[in-house]
Amino acid sequence: MRYISTRGQAPSVGFVDAVLAGLAPDGGLYVPETWPSFTDAEIAAFAGRPYAEVAAAVIGAFAGDEIPKDELLEMCREAYATFNHPAVVPLVQLSPGAFLAELFHGPSLAFKDVAMQILARLYDHVLGKQSRTQTILCATSGDTGGAAVEAFRGRRNVKVVALFPEGRISEVQRRFMTAATEPNVACVAVAGTFDDCQAIVKQAFQDQVLRQAVDLSGVNSINFARIAAQAVYYFTSAVALGAPHRPVSFCVPSGNFGDAFAGYVASRMGLPIGRIVVATNSNDILAHAFEDGRYVRGQVTPTISPAMDIQSASNFERLYFESVEREPVETARAFGAFATAGAIDIPPKAFQAMRAMFRGVAVGEDETRRIIVATLNETGELIDPHTAVAVAALKRVADLPGPVVVLSTAHAAKFPEDVAEASGVTPALPRGALDLADRPERFDRLPAEPETIKEYVRAFANA
Question: Which of 13, 111, 313, 376 sits CB 3.0–4.6 Å from 17 for a disulfide?
Fold first, then answer.
């Protein structure tokens, strides 16, 4: 299995190199040269199998022969043993034909754990064999950083620098990063937005001197291994509801588009997905793209669903590349223009291809709060603001094929103040995180200046 850049100016690489690199050297994102696929019989056979076994099959389809199957299976078993539910991603029925897929039973109480726990083990496996140490630089809008720190803390072959926008994530989200005491972890509060943090990460990856000096790698959703790992719960959820014998639709709260794009990947692998509804908050760049055909960056607006406070969704480039029939020159042109002008007019044929799978819905703050209390009253489920955005979006879209799965991306206890204000109920942290508020924090504050942060990364990596 080989991987190519969406911008076409980087050589193809194998799975391991794509994982360790994160971003392609030409600024593009890695995608498989050809999409692997399962037959209907193979998909049906996932029914009733342990989550780790399905994960090993799906991720293994992308790894090819670069990682022995028995070793990958053992990594998956170790990764998902860290979750506090035996199903890893259980389904809970909301109403006739509508279900929640609870993605928050991992160590940091967010869906990012599903991919990050296996990614950490992939890094350990590969870097250990190569006697190599890497520096991971990640930007977080709230949950990626906590999941990365939980997964990589204390590991011998990796150092982690997590950038987060100061004052724009919840206290619980912040503490899952900053309470880490291991010396291989550094957390930085950046005076800016998540988009500023993400832009700094991209600039760092394009700095070839820095990249080589610290052996830079990335675990944001730009890393294709994360997309592959997220595709797994599309398979397990859909098969539990009757796939491949009937289609299943999904409603996904989305900011950086990685979680929703993972559904597209599952469909390319043969899973019969009816539609994917992309639900955004008032930072609605994706909702407009799928409804109006224009991908236009606006000002980031702080909301009670901060992990979605994004106006530049990295993984949209992967979908654009597929929708323009894998034309790298057009993709490079479009995203070069977006970097300077902040807008892309999606070509009509590409827009039509996107609309065959995706719909977009933007949900405001008042509606998000109403859905939190309405869901509690109607079902007894206390949901977080991101999940509430998706539930609200689902109520606005009619005639979705098959049953519908809402991806519940975070535990309500990660946003206790906002959930309590909306519902009158303060969500309790799970037992393993009860002492989180008592742990001392450790982080640095820096301006949103690329050179300053690059020097910080260099100093930390070489310490």
Answer: 13
